[in-house]
Amino acid sequence: MTFPKGFLWGAATASYQVEGGVTEGGRGPSIWDTFAAADGKVLGGATGAVACDHYHRYPEDIGLLADLGLNAYRFSVAWPRVMPDGRTTSAAGLAFYDRLVDELLSRDVVPVLTLYHWDLPQALEDAGGWPERDTASRFADYAAVVHAALGDRVNQWTTVNEPFCAAFLGYGSGVHAPGVQDYDTALVAAHHLLLGHGLAARALAGQARPGHEFSLALNFAPAIPDGSSPAHAEAARKFDGIHNRFFLDPVLGRGYPEDVLADVEHHGGRFAAAVRDGDTDVIAAPIDWLGVNYYAPARVTPLADPLSASNCPLPGLRGMDVLPAEGPLTAFGWEQSPSTLTSLLDWLSSQSGLPLVVAENGASFVDHVVDGRVFDAARVNYFMDHLGAVHDAIRDGVDVRGYFAWSLLDNFEWAMGYTQRFGLVHVDFETQRRTVKESGRFLGRVAKANALVTPAEGVGDARA
C-alpha cells in the first residue's frame, strides 16, 4: 500500500494551542486570550498562556518531528504576534516565524504555513471582528506582510483554517471565542471569513514566486441519514448544506447554494445584505489544492415538525436532529468511520477537480506514560484505518498529495482545555517534558517507507 512519490507526511499544530509566550516579543492579545480568561468558558479554567511553550521549545519540537521521519510541518502564524493591534507590523513577531522556518528547512522539513487558525487580534474584535467587513481587508494586509517576510522560503500557503468553526462556533453557538451567540451574526462572519480568504489569496498571488501553492482548509462532516425515506434525505441535505456546501461551493466558484440560502433566510437577513456584488468572484480566487480536515461523520434524522429547532447548534437547521455517534468512539466521543473519509475524498475530487491534502486527521485517547513510553494502540489503529482509507481514495484515482496528523503535540484543545490529547508526542504540561508516543513512531515508519506498514509488535493490530 504505497503512496505517490513526493507525498507529504506531516503533523499539524495551531499557534494559540501550542506557542504560549502570549506576552512576549510584543505579541498583542487575541480573542482566545480574552475568551479563556473569562469564567466558565474553558474547561478547568485553562488558557493558552503557556500551552506547550513551543515559542521557546520549537527547535526541540521540530527535532522530534524530523527524527520521526516526517517531512512536513503544518503550523499557523499568530496574527496578534505579527500585528499586535491587527494592523501594525511587529518586527519581533515576524522574527519568531523567521527562526521557525529556518529551523524547519535546516531539518529538511517542508513548512506548510496557515495564516489564520482562529486567534483574531482582540483589537480587531473590539472594532467589530469578523462580522465587520473591514476585518477581511485587514486579513489580506496581514497575509501580504507575512508572505513578504517568508515567501522566499515557504512555498505552501493556506489562508484560513476551518471558517466553519471560527464563524459558527465563535459567533453562533458561542462555545468558541469570541463567544457571541447569534446565528445571523455567525452567517455574516462566515461570509467575511471566506471573503478574507479570497482577498488574501489574490494578495498572495500578486506576490507569488515560482513553486508557491495556495489553499484553504475546510472541515467536513458527511451526513449519514438513519433511514432511506425522502424525509431522511432532506435531513441529510440540510446538514450537508450548512456544514459542507455553504463553504465549499463559493470557493469553487458556484456561489452560495440556493437551498442553503433558503434554509437560513429566517435568521434576519443580515447575511444577504452582507454579500455585495463581486464578493463571490473574490471568494472563488484560484487555489492550487484544497485542505481537507476530517474527524467524523454526522448521523442525522428528520423530525415530524419541519420548523422545530434542531439539537445541533448550526444556522438554518430545523426539522432534523443529529443522532449520537456510533462506536467505536474516541475519547472526545467522536465516531471512528474511516470508510467515510474515502467517500469524502472521492466526492471532493469529483466536485472540485482539485488536488487534495488531508490537512487534519487524528484522534484523542486517554494516554499514560509508563516507563518512559506511551503505548497508544488505539491511536495506532486509528491511523492504520484512516491511512488505509486515504489509500483507497488514491486507488480510486483521487489526487491526494499529503496527510497531516492532528496533532504533533498534546496541546490546548480550545474549550476543552487540556483534557483531550491528540498528539503524536505526549506533553507533561507541568514539566513540559515530551515523550514520543507509539503512534508517532508508527507514523514515522509509514512516512519513511511512503507506504502503510505494520505497527511494532504488541502495538496495534497487524492490519496493513
UniProtKB/TrEMBL annotation:
The keyword Magnesium does not apply. It catalyses: Hydrolysis of terminal, non-reducing beta-D-glucosyl residues with release of beta-D-glucose. Gene3D superfamilies: Glycosidases. Its EC number is 3.2.1.21. It comes from the Bacteria. The keyword Hydrolase applies. Keywords: Carbohydrate metabolism, Cellulose degradation, Glycosidase, Hydrolase, Polysaccharide degradation. Belongs to the glycosyl hydrolase 1 family. NCBIfam families: BGL. This is Beta-glucosidase. It comes from Amycolatopsis mediterranei (strain S699) (Nocardia mediterranei).
